[in-house]
Design goal:
The chain is α+β, with helices and mostly antiparallel strands. It has nine helices and 16 strands. The strands form four sheets. Strands 1, 4, 5, 9, 12, 13 and 14 form a seven-stranded mixed beta sheet that branches. Strands 6-7-3-10-11 form a five-stranded antiparallel beta sheet. Strands 2-8 form a two-stranded antiparallel sheet.
């Protein structure tokens, strides 16, 4: 940040014809006001970084496969029995029928829930990511159907007026907070509370078939514990997966496949689309973006000040110059340095030739100072070389319209 008050404090104690006292007061006041405004803007940006509220970016991804969800199946006041699981294959050929969701090899896809609550009976259907829904071009499972039976229909209804039913909720195998505790992050807790509120649940009703279509979505939450997201680099994300549910209910038609005495109802799941919606958090304020805004604000304020009062003097020396000069042994003979010692000291008596030589040395030092820090003289040297033909260590001196090359002591140039 530019220190406006310091830049112009060198004029504070002297008046000039070009800057009377009222103008000096006005300039210093505006410089202080601009400095306070700039500092306030920096504080505002820092507060915005600390209290940043991420924005969401929506994109679409095409899945090559969809995991068969973990399915929680619950019944109130009565146990529920999954009498049959049916895995429908592509083209409905070689369909697989498993009684009680148990394969002939003894693999049981049902996990009983906690029996501590005797009023709620829950099971979790899971394939542990061993089976998935493939794209239509690949042979595999296209739908899973469940036949269930409520053990006590009267107890299931309780004091209500509705038909006996069970509650069903699908979870993605990679994010099932009700059965598999997720990482302890704010978003995980928020999503867990939403799922406990039956956000994407549906029902299996007596003598009805529930057809459920699933669409997968992903939420990418920023890991705020890492500094790279605050800095503005690619953040580290926590990925949370969900299933959006579209359910339809149809009356069941009793027949050989469904007996009301053996089963209460049917529900099935199948993929609706392999286009996955992705919601990704992005910080609206980072250190790098705030640095860019700070630079823009500095340019506007300093440009306004320059328009009103002109540009400040050039200052080609920085922190390293001011720091290292204190650690370097400097010769006491500073009389040759321009702008440091007076041209003629009152304590010295110099002859005319000595005074002339001293002035020539100071002029030469001034030329080197301009060449080193302010003016690129390579073009002028090339013009002089082409026009007058003098060498790099010679300088053209014009005396009485006669051009003479003159050797200049310590006058060396770097050819670019």
């Amino acid at each position: 940040m530019i220190d406006f008050t310091k830049c112009f404090s060198r004029y504070a104690n002297k008046k000039t014809l070009s800057e009377p006292a009222p103008l000096l007061f006005l300039r210093v006041s505006i410089a202080i006001f601009i400095s306070i405004t700039f500092i306030s803007y920096i504080v505002y940006l820092l507060i915005a970084i600390k209290n940043d509220a991420p924005v969401l970016r929506f994109t679409q991804e095409t899945l090559t496969k969809m995991e068969i969800p973990d399915i929680e199946i619950c019944s109130d006041n009565s146990d529920v029995i999954i009498t049959k699981c049916i895995f429908y294959m592509t083209g409905f050929q070689n369909n697989q029928y498993y009684d009680n969701c148990t394969t002939p090899e003894g693999i049981n896809y049902l996990i009983p829930g906690n029996k501590a609550n005797t009023r709620t009976f829950c099971y979790l259907f899971t394939t542990n990511k061993t089976i998935h829904f493939p794209q239509s071009s690949e042979h595999g499972v296209i739908a899973v159907e469940f036949l269930f039976k409520i053990a006590n229909l009267t107890a299931s209804v309780g004091q209500g007026w509705a038909s006996p039913a069970i509650s069903i909720q699908p979870f993605h195998p990679d994010f099932n907070p009700l059965w598999r505790p997720p990482p302890n992050t704010p978003k995980a807790v928020e999503f867990e509370n939403e799922l406990r509120g039956q956000k994407n649940s549906f029902s299996g009703i007596q003598n009805y078939v529930t057809k459920v279509s699933l669409r997968q979505s992903k939420f990418r939450a920023i890991n705020h514990k890492t500094f790279r997201s605050v800095l503005g680099l690619d953040p580290i994300y926590f990925d949370y997966f969900f299933f959006d549910v579209d359910s339809k209910y149809f009356p069941v038609e009793p027949g050989p496949a469904f007996s009301p005495t053996t089963n209460t109802g049917v529900f099935s799941i199948q993929p609706q689309s392999f286009e996955q919606e992705v919601k990704e958090q992005q910080r609206s304020r980072t250190l790098l973006s705030s640095l860019g805004l700070t630079g823009g604000a500095f340019g506007v304020l300093f440009g306004l000040y320059t328009v009103l009062f002109g540009a400040s003097r050039l200052k080609p020396w920085g922190i390293f110059h001011r720091t290292l000069i204190k650690r370097t042994q400097i010769s006491n003979q500073l009389q040759s340095l321009p702008l440091v010692s007076p041209v003629q000291s009152s304590t010295l008596t110099l002859s005319s030739s000595e005074r002339t030589m001293r002035l020539e040395n100071r002029v030469q030092e001034l030329e080197e100072l301009l060449q080193d820090y302010f003016l690129d003289t390579s073009y002028l040297r090339k013009v002089g070389k082409n026009a007058f033909g003098y060498k790099e260590d010679e300088r053209v001196v014009i005396i009485d319209n006669v051009q003479k090359p003159s050797k200049m002591k310590n006058d060396q140039y770097d050819e670019e």
